[in-house]
Structures are given as structure tokens and as C-alpha cells.
Amino acid sequence: MSERMAIVGLGYADIRSCTPGISYKELMYEAATRAYDDAGINPRKQVDSFISVSEDFWEGTSIFDEYVPDQLGAALRPVHTVCGDGLQALSCAAMLIETGQAQIVAVEGHSKHSDMCTPHHIHQLAFDPIYHRPLGAHPQHLAGLEMARFLHESENTREHCGLVVQKNRRNALKNPRSVYGSDLSLQDILDAEPTFTPMGVLDAAQPADGAFVVVVAAERRAKALSTHPVWIRGYGWCTETPAVDSRSWGEAAYARLAAHQAYRMAKITAPARELDFAEVDDSFSYKELQHLEALDICPQGAAGAWLQAGITQTGGEFPVNVSGGSLGVGYFLEASGLMRLTEAVLQLRGQAGAVQLPAVRRGLVQSWRNLPTTTGCVVILERADGRE
Amino acid sequence: MTVNIKQWPGTALATRDLEQGHVLTVKYKPRAEYAWDAGVAIARYLEELKAGRLIARSCKQCDRILIPPRMFCEECFRPTDSWVYVEDTGTVNTFSICHVRWDVVRLDQPQLPAVIHVDGASPGMGILHLLGEVAPEEVYIGMKVKAVWEEASRRQGSITDIRHWKPWKEE
Ligand SMILES: [Zn+2]
Rounded to an integer, what distance in angstroms lies between the CA atom of residue B65 and that of residue B72? Predict the structure, then answer.
């Protein structure tokens, strides 16, 4: 990276299963207010550019980008939306800063999932209208297909996937910024209602509402603004073919390539040794295992064994999703990456509360845009007193 | 297409080819249904419409009265301060004579959407609504208008609780 930059502000609001009584604008305003206060800035004067992530169909309003400025302090200012995951927007913010066009950029993502009456029907519209939609399968059947192939190709097992659910939902019990904390036995998880076998109902993350805002600043501004800046050391994103007939079902190729890009920038060659923890996508139980392998954090086929050995547990050598991940915290549509980023930044600031890990210096955040996509993004973060 | 091309390449496609199934067609009826939380500002606004009143929010910092109301001031980026009732009269800021409806049906009686600056709200603060009880050629920018409310029993907490705005002379 040619320009150093850091996250200097963080705000989140209303992480709940549903948020009756407030509008999406009021939700976004609340998170933005907290982020600007955290950064100690006036958005009307000090933020050079604003980015929001949204997908028109989730919102129910087309050309949704026109509906975001007021509640972010972005009226009559440079603003655009990214129709993708929050970490893709963070990458856009980083690029805006790298060009010199902006010194301070605000990135927002929100989920008002509870506003949707027919979420599965809306999700269905993401599927190819000629090849795929006429088959009439529920959107999550793709996860069943992927899980089956992943387990077939690797040494990971159905039980390992169940352990991911158990770990993340238990982790969330300690995290007040979460919705789905629960203490389940492995048997509870394996016996749960089958949905898209080999997946059961508990293997899928459940939706939640919430808004997340982060403020990113170029180095010369970051040091003045924040006593605990969290540096962005690398970022990358990638999309594999959308074709469901020929994508790589067993491995998460998008995550592997996005990680390569981020590792190259951050000059990381041995991720498990050089990183201290990770918040990775676990929208479905097997995804955490698949992603850890694609990210080269653990050897191919070993993610389940690592979990069983306690390595990715909170007290282990490489904790994964200490926050509770999406299985424990919730699934926030396009804001999911920003939820993971928020948790990682809190860890590196030492502000993660009951889920705080001791002495963490460098962490990885990875997102996936959920079904039916093959898009993922990776960001490497480092604490202020880390390696220069 | 350039004039040098004398003959169209490919095969022409007519509506009947689609209707008669000569080409592949896909029919799909989306079920995209939403129940948006109105939130604090819009909910109160709609409740007041049902009661036959227009309500706004004030911002102390920029000294504006904002309608439709919002819980934050987009200029000052701070919470707005209080609820303020405003008049159901105003001034036409801009209008258009629409000969075609939203679903492209041509209209005998043109529709008259207008932005109405509401009396009691700050300059530039208005609502988009419809004009009525006026001939299209008589509408002008700067015209004073007054809301014509739906009968109380028929109001349902919607912007259509105002039927339209009609020309009005200040007493
Ligand atoms: Zn104001």
C-alpha cells in the first residue's frame, strides 16, 4: 500500500432480531452519530467522501443510493453506494484515500431485514431466471450442495460443522453486540430439523437488524484524530464465476484469491503465525471451515480438526469468530462484513469487553456476500503499536 | 444503423413471435413484499394527517422548520428539537401538467403534481402533492393553495388523506 490509513471511528446501533419503531434512516443516523463522535469529527465539514452499502431489493426501493445522504451527514457532499459487502466499500474507501482524493471517508452498512415480509422470495430473484429459478428450489439449497461437496472433498465432517455452530453461538453468549447466543450440545445441533441435507436448520445464520459505520483516515489525519487508530495493512476482493454449474463447489476460490491480494499488500507469508485472530464469514457452519482453509490459516482439510483440538476456540492459539460470528451475532445482509470488521477493530483497540482476547496485534476479517454469490473480501488490520 | 446497410442482419422479431411462443420467454411474478417501519418521524406525520393536521420538526441550530418531519437535521447533522404544527396552506413552488398517468394511460383531465411550500415551515420546505379544483392553464408558480382534506372517517394515515390542494386567497 502506498498510503497508510487507519480506522479512527466506529459506530453501531440496534443489533436486534427486529427493530420496530425506528426507520432505516433513524437506524443509520444512530450508528453514524456514534462513529463520528468516536472519531471526534464533524461529518458536515471533515468527512471528504461517504460510502454506503445496499442492495435495492433488500431495501425495497430502487436507486437506493439516493436515499442515504441525509442520515449520514452527506447531503451536498460526495457520496456513493456500493452494491456489495461492507468490506468492498471499505476497499473503495481505502482506494479513495490512496488516490489523494479524500483524507477521511465514512463507510456505512445496515440491515433492516425485518422490513422484508417475503425475504426468501426476494432472495430468489438473485437466481438466474432461465437456468435456475424455474426449478423452484429454496435459495438455501445451494448451501446444501456446497456443504455436501466440501465435506466430500475434505477430511472435515458433519460433526465438525456442528462444532462450529456450538462454538460461535456459545461465543455470542458473552458478546452483548449479538442476538443468537445459545449453549447447545453437539447432539442438539446434529438432531435439529433437517433443511437442506447435509445442512440442518441450526447450520444457517439467522438474520438480524443493525447498522454499522466506520471512519477511515489517511495517516496524517489518523494520528491526530485517534489515540488508538487501527491500521489497514491490506485488502483484497474477488468474484468467481456466478455459474452454479461450474463454480468450484468444494473450495472458496474467491476467498483464496482475495486473501492473496491482501497478504501481498500486508507482506504476510505465513498467515497463522503472523496473524493473531480472525473474524471470518460463517453464514453457514461449513463456511467457517471452508474459509479458514481458503485463507491458508490452516492446512487444507484440517479446519475441523483444528476446531476439535481447540485451536480456533476463544482460548486457543488462533481464535476464530470470538464475537460469535454470524451464527451467534446475526446475519446483516450487506453489512455483515462491517459487523466482523467492528468486532476485529474492538479487539485491536482492547475494547471488546467480555470477548476481549489478550495481547492481539494483528487480525484478519473476511466476508462473503452470501448465496448465490461467489464474492468475498479480505482485510488485514493491525493495532497502533504494531509493526511499522 | 448506418444508411450503408441495405439489409438488416438477423431475423426480425415481432410481438406475435413472443405471444405465440416462437422464441423463449420466461414469466415470473416476483413476490417482493415489505413492511417498512415508518419510524418516529414518519409515524407521527401520518398520525397527524389522519387527524387532519400537518406537523413538522424544528432544528434550533439552523432555525429551520422541516416538513416532512425528520428526527435529524440533514444540514446540521444533529437531532431535531421539537414538533411544530404548520398550516395546511402554501405556495406552488413548481408544477407540471401531466397528460400521461404513471401507467402510461393518456388522460383527458391532466393530473397536476406540484411541490407546495407549506406555510409555517421554512422557505424551501414543502411537500409533493396534487393540485385540484383548478384548470391546468390557471396554475402558476407562486399560486397560493389550501389542502382539501378527505372526510375524517375515511382518512387512514396516508398522504392521500389530503385529496388535493386547491387555489386559495389569503383573507
Ligand atoms: Zn439544523
Answer: 12
